[in-house]
Specification:
This protein is of the alpha+beta class. The chain is built from 9 helices and 27 strands. The strands form 7 sheets. Strands 20, 21, 23, 24, 25, 26 and 27 form a 7-stranded antiparallel β-sheet that branches. Strands 1, 2, 3, 5, 6 and 7 form a 6-stranded parallel β-sheet that branches. The protein is elongated and about 90 Å long. The structure holds nickel (II) ion. Nickel (II) ion binds near residues 21, 70 and 111.
Length: about 400
């Protein structure tokens, strides 16, 4: 899906850095450097390397880089049978899907950039070559890599690097610093073409993206609204650009496609994205957290002599009744220990996020509190027994 907005000149110069043959040992350090610079890149991964580094694959995806295929074993595809070519492509796609827990499309870079019309027809994905080869594998020198990128960069260039060499990481990061200062933005390959308004097709070869150097602009983070509903909170997302919307929960790496408002729990954190391509073409995250819900009031274990007291939850207040009725917003506000009495103490916590569950205690004048044993009133007379049985919520003396 491509936006229909007419191309406008925003003055942004775009570069797609690509890293082949990894993930490798230096890849996490490269990811650190890209994150620190707000730069995104495309990783053409070898299946055999990705299978050994699933954490790095997930991290690169999570940080907004594009995950792409460099086949499984790095064979020269033009010299292989159809069966081998298909296996090399499909095995890698299936592995990446398994690692990421999603069903995604992956750009492909044929090893050595070697293709022909027949191989292109078998790939089932756009074939991405390059327009600037840093020869970083040959000259293992950070200054060389940096110089190659900086001296040959232009708006729309696709740069070939390898994230299996430490010197490449140093050189590429140094080049990013210099080129960002000159107004370049580092984007993924898919984002480069999308921002040029160019639709990529399966089985076609792409090596540069100059065109008219127009830029329809990046993807803006979505608007997120959290509102209170029965049973929790409702999260509603909107995109000013009418982009498809995605979300993931804080403890997840899998992205869910958003189609209608979702219900989230109090205290739950959600990251929300707009994305024309969730793999490498996402907006920054809009982060939202539902207000924490109130929990049931907790009795102070150090209840004073002949009095009942509560430990207050941060940001919450406690309201209570002494006549057995359910507390509500108009009940007595707990501000100091409650003098012991014979009867029922019913208490509830209230937060901006809503009311917690009410708790009911049988209270005794001696200062004992018995939890939820209203039916067994005889126990009131034998608080010592109740305490021994462990059904006492708090001790008053
Ligand atoms: Ni390669």
């Amino acid at each position: 899906m491509l936006p229909t907005a007419s191309a406008t000149q925003t003055g942004k110069k775009l570069i797609a850095l690509t890293f082949d043959d990894g993930p490798g040992g230096p890849t996490p350090r490269l990811l650190d450097g890209l994150a620190a610079r707000g730069a995104r890149a495309t990783f053409f991964m070898l299946g055999q390397c990705a299978s050994n580094a699933p954490k790095t694959v997930r991290r690169a995806f999570l940080e907004g880089h594009e995950i792409a295929s460099h086949t499984y074993s790095h064979y020269q595809l033009t010299a292989k049978s159809d069966e081998t070519v298909l296996n090399e492509v499909q095995k890698t796609d299936a592995l990446l899907d398994e690692i990421l827990g999603m069903d995604l499309d992956y750009l492909i870079r044929p090893p050595y950039g070697s293709t022909n019309a027949h191989v292109l027809g078998l790939l089932g994905a756009p074939a991405i070559i390059w327009s600037l080869d840093t020869l970083d594998w040959k000259y293992r020198d950070a200054d060389w890599v940096c110089g190659q990128i900086v001296q040959n960069a232009y708006n729309g260039v696709i740069v070939l690097c390898h994230d299996i060499h430490s010197t490449t990481v140093d050189g590429a990061l140094a080049a990013i610093d210099i080129l960002q200062a000159r107004g370049y933005e580092f984007v993924t390959v898919s984002e480069l073409y999308r921002r040029r308004g160019v639709q990529m097709n399966d089985g076609e070869r792409y090596s540069t993206c100059m065109r008219d150097e127009s830029d329809i602009g990046g993807v803006e983070a979505p608007e997120a609204e959290v509102s209170r509903v029965l049973g929790g909170y409702q999260l509603t997302l909107t995109s000013a650009q009418d982009a498809p919307l995605w979300y993931r929960f804080e403890d997840e790496t899998v992205f869910h496609e958003y189609s209608a408002p979702i219900v989230i729990e109090g205290g739950q954190k959600v990251y929300c994205y707009a994305a024309f391509n969730v793999n490498g073409g996402r907006s920054e995250a809009t982060q939202c957290t539902a207000p924490a819900a109130a929990v049931a009031p907790v009795l102070s274990p150090a209840a004073g002599q002949g009095a009942f007291s509560f430990v207050l939850q941060a940001g919450a207040c406690v309201r209570y009744t002494t006549d057995g009725s359910e507390p509500d917003a108009s009940s007595v506000l707990y501000t100091q220990p409650i003098a012991a009495f014979d009867g029922v103490l019913c208490a509830q916590s209230l937060c901006p996020g809503g009311a917690g569950q009410a708790v009911r205690y049988t209270a005794c004048i001696e200062g004992w509190l018995l939890l939820d044993i209203l039916e067994q009133r005889s126990l009131e007379k034998t608080c010592g027994v109740a305490a021994a049985l462990g059904i006492c919520a708090a001790l008053g003396r």
